[in-house]
């Protein structure tokens, strides 16, 4: 099913064209990144795709599906406490009672904002408000999720959590997001639109990279490392080795290292 089909669409505002000659077709399930320099028109294209901006010329057909939009900046001065706000927004999108409360608690735990559930949103930090916006959108269980620079303001743990949530929750649904960070493109995108001066100048299909982990361990240089299930390794000094391993193999490698009494110094996702 097509989510959107745009035919030479343009967007004009106050006499200026923000977008020109937009001709694209996006299918259900696609994970589309929109990239480009500041001011190139990424947010405008996202809004045009999602129907937040109506087109001024050409033609756009959009499927009638449940759509959630997370703007780049969460609205200021919302007086509701975080939990009240999420309950209210969750109810507006069909959530109910205990089930909704449980979902909110689980998201709050995953995104590490439990301690702010009873804080008015206007007093929360930028990153915490950003998380509230993302949780609000995920509570809708959307068929189309539009994210405008979703990683902005999130710390590293929250960024990884967001990617994990998107991978597990969105499945065959569609995500369209503007982004500057390569991590999100590598992990999530199967298609990348590049925009310049309000025009799409490139539309590429991505081969998704398999997630890799780095394990740093204490292993004396004279001992065999070659037999271990890693893609590559590098000795940082006589005893410390950094191994790169496919995420799917990382538990197996950790188990082997621990069984051989090697000391693990670090486990992190490879960027
Ligand atoms: N509501 C608006 N009214 C008038 N001009 C606008 C409006 N929204 C965006 N623009 C203009 O359109 C151009 C593209 O803006 P847009 O926010 O889409 O770019 P962007 O690529 O998302 O930028 P950034 O990376 O800085 O967020 C800019 O010149 C901007 O000033």
UniProtKB/TrEMBL annotation:
GO terms for molecular function: ATP binding. It comes from the Bacteria. PROSITE patterns: ABC_TRANSPORTER_2. Gene3D superfamilies: P-loop containing nucleotide triphosphate hydrolases. Keywords: ATP-binding, Nucleotide-binding, Transport. Residues 3-222 form the ABC transporter domain. SMART domains: AAA. Pfam families: ABC_tran. PANTHER family: ABC TRANSPORTER ATP-BINDING PROTEIN ALBC-RELATED. This is ATP-binding cassette domain-containing protein.
